[in-house]
Automatic annotation (TrEMBL):
Cofactor: Mg(2+)
The organism's place on the tree of life at top rank: Bacteria
Family membership: Belongs to the MobA family.
One GO CC annotation: cytoplasm
Function: Transfers a GMP moiety from GTP to Mo-molybdopterin (Mo-MPT) cofactor (Moco or molybdenum cofactor) to form Mo-molybdopterin guanine dinucleotide (Mo-MGD) cofactor.
Protein name according to UniProt: Molybdenum cofactor guanylyltransferase
The organism of origin for this protein: Siculibacillus lacustris
Lineage, uppermost ranks: Bacteria, Pseudomonadati, Pseudomonadota, Alphaproteobacteria, Hyphomicrobiales
UniProt feature, compositional bias: Polar residues: 210-228
Molecular function GO terms recorded: GTP binding; metal ion binding; molybdenum cofactor guanylyltransferase activity
Length: 228
């Protein structure tokens, strides 16, 4: 699931998912990265779903009003995933402003979860930083999550994850950090320069399964199975 429910204040507001990067919306880059890794893909967003119709994705609104952040998007994803046929056991989440995601992200997170049956979530890390939005979750108690969001007891993503016995999976951050967030116009400009350089035979776009870099930030990888 791609989380795109933020307000993009540092970009002047609006739908960050639709901001252009190298001639394509940010959402297109991230969807290209994530789609080959999962069984089904959805978008968590609170604006008009018609704005995303061209992408052909289910658009999930938060089940709790107030733009409460990634945990509200995760709750929407759990509800959606439980209604699939067959229901999903796992939900992967990534941010819409991370177009250089590893092509083996979900596979490595799933491997870590399988090796740690007590863990309820596997979380990506790079360059000494944990990235709580880049994660693979075992579906938990949706009602409890929604209740915590509604009464204000749940707000901080990492604090909540710490209570789910997380396993941390480290990814290389060279030649670039694959979890770099694009929060400003300057970030977008740097990312576009990186894509253009890769198209011209310069630096690779990110870490993955070793396939050649392309001008698009997308790539291919093996599906890990039941992650969503």
């Amino acid at each position: 699931m791609i989380l795109a429910g933020g307000l993009a204040r540092r970009m002047g507001g609006g739908d960050k998912a639709l901001r252009p990067l190298a001639g394509r919306p940010l959402l297109a880059h991230v969807a290209d990265r994530l789609a080959p890794q999962v069984r089904a893909l959805a978008l968590s967003a609170n604006s008009d779903p018609a704005r995303f119709a061209a992408f052909g994705l289910p658009v999930l609104a938060d089940p709790v009003a107030g733009a409460l952040g990634p945990l509200a998007g995760l709750a929407a994803g759990w509800i959606w995933a439980a209604g699939l046929a067959p229901p999903a056991a796992l939900v992967a989440t990534v941010a819409v402003d991370t177009p250089f995601l590893p092509e083996d992200l979900v596979a490595r997170l799933a491997q870590a979860l399988a090796a740690a049956p007590e863990a309820e979530v596997a979380v990506a890390a790079s360059a000494g930083r944990v990235h709580p939005v880049a994660a693979l979750h075992r579906i938990g108690d949706v009602a409890a999550l929604v209740a915590g969001l509604s009464d204000g007891s749940l707000r901080r993503v990492m604090s909540w994850i710490d209570g789910r016995r997380p396993v941390i999976v480290d990814f290389p951050a060279l030649p670039c950090d694959p979890f770099e967030n694009l929060n400003t116009e300057a970030d977008l400009a740097r990312a576009e320069a990186r894509i253009r350089a890769a198209a011209d035979g310069g630096l690779p776009l990110g870490q993955g399964n070793g396939s050649p870099s392309e001008a698009r930030t997308s790539g291919t990888c093996q599906s890990p199975g039941d992650g969503l």
